[in-house]
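Researcher: Checking consistency across runs. Here is Serine/threonine protein phosphatase 7 long form isogeny again:
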Amino acid sequence: MVSFLGGLEAKRGGGEGEHPIDSHAVGSSPANTISREDVAFLYGLRSTGIPVRSNTRGPWEEKIRANLYPHEDLGEWHRERRSREGDVVVGNNIKLKWLRQNCGVAPQADAPGEELDRYTRAVALELFGTLIFPDISQNSIPAYYLELVSGNLNEVPDFNWGGATLACLYRALDRASMRFKVVTGPWMLLLFWAWSYLPVCRPEVAPIGGLGQPNLDSCVPFGRKWGEARSFERSQHRGAVENARDYLAVLNVEDINWFPYVLDRAVMPRVAQEGSIAEHVRLPLIFYHIVAYYYPDRCRHQFGLYQITPPPLPVSWDVTQNLLGFQHGTYRDRPDFATIFASAHAEWTDEAL
């Protein structure tokens, strides 16, 4: 996937020394970008609400007992990063194997509400750690994600999950453009987006039924289309990465499907249909230590708007570089990132909520 991203960078004229902030846009003139609207349609995640952040400090044993596993046999507990058989938490991460074995069995429909809530939290944690916010570990999930789903589950939809997912993807694209050796992020979102817009290595899929059912609050998103059985037999671009790069190099504006959701918009999840002017506002996308700025005015064509020359970026390159330098592993005491990025949170509150 990173090699393929290199092809996208070549298409843009990017490369060594380019500002990684440019990696959010794909194509030449007009450009295309992965927008908050795309996250809403492909994943069914809202792109407004409270920035995704919470306490990142432990200890986690009491919180795991209260929200996931209220039993005495909680298992081994190690603060070291080296994993051992039977561990629940390694460092500050919950082991995915333990979570699946002890919390991943669906209860009966008539089970007590507390049991259903614990199972719901376990499913949410696995989605966070493996699909929406995957990281390099691949076998564990940051324990502080539990803070996002503890307590009243009715408050979970109030978070800006779409913006957080897009922030993670933007950070990953930034790092790919800077030639990092290992890059992790929500690559499935990027893949679904590419298949929706670009005729490059796009598979054939069977039509999906049940769109809009049982209601717009719980129906499947557009991205489900690409989760069906796929066939690449008729794809003239299948094969090596170089084939995709060559095709991207000659891709024209008319080859892009600028409005992939227009025919199915009426049967998409309600969060995808309830767009607002905020989708076209420059603002920071926030996910804990990640702050990525969103500039939709650079790609107005995909929103059905006339493309004008965008004004100068409101954030200097020095600020962008500083934001890219923040990582969880940099801090031993797990700081409150809301304090570190106070100005970004204030900017989000002023312009987006």
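Researcher: Does this match what you'd expect to see?
Model: One thing to look at in this run: Residues 2-42+161-351 form one domain.
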